[in-house]
Amino acid sequence: MTDPRLVAIYPPLGLRVTCGPLELRGIGEPEVLALLDVVREGVHAPEFMPFTFPWTDAPAADLPLNYLQWWWRGMATWQPDEWALDLCVLWEGEVVGVQGVATRDFLTLRYGETGSWLGRRFQGRGIGTAMRQAMCTLLFDHLDFEFITSAAFSDNPASLRVSEKLGYQNNGAAWQTRRGDSSTTQRLLLLKEDFVRGPAIEVEGVAAMREFIGLEH
Questions:
Q1: Whole-prediction pTM
Q2: Residue 62 has pLDDT above 90, yes or no
Q3: CA 193 to CA 191: how far, in whole Å?
Q4: How many whole angstroms separate alpha carbon 153 and alpha carbon 95?
Q5: Phi/psi at 195 (5° precision)
Q6: CB within 8 A of 98, min separation 6: which ones?
Q7: 23, β-bridge pairs
Q8: In the predicted model, what is the mean pLDDT of residues 19-41?
Q9: Checking DSSP bridges between strand 16-19 and strand 169-178, what pairing results, if any?
């Protein structure tokens, strides 16, 4: 458990969302070390890159430091007008991946873009759908988001299926360089009234988080 003194300084560490066998929690030292083990086991097939930022292409020897730097950077660069909330995902008590959202000018625009990854051996079991569903419920019902965006390469049907199941709508296309080639990215938009909800969630640490992002000022 993260020291309460650190949670008081950085409330995302104290966030906890539970829904049946699923838990999303703030990433402290124990979580980031467990996530490193999942990364080492593999997140996707080597021949396929699902991420717009290809962080898994780093040499195996560099991944641990790269991942720690990502974790530290999230806290070091947090600003009221530009922040990312990344939560560790556990399934039946086992760390399996990360579900996050990133936003800019949130108090004005009230939206953010979700992103996630899931250890390869945990894929195909419905966990990806459950974790994004829980995150969207947290954002809409507890953090006052008005809409949520997402994106996936057009050749990533698993991610696109999750978005479709949750009610995301087509929001255009974009092009991006991926491993030296041009690739099409499908943009997606989720409105609160279109959201296909799952089971109810239980949350902890939301009051402090709301104040931290400026909703109670």
A1: 0.91
A2: no
A3: 5
A4: 26
A5: -65, 125
A6: 27, 35, 86, 87, 88, 89, 116, 117
A7: 18, 90
A8: 93
A9: unpaired
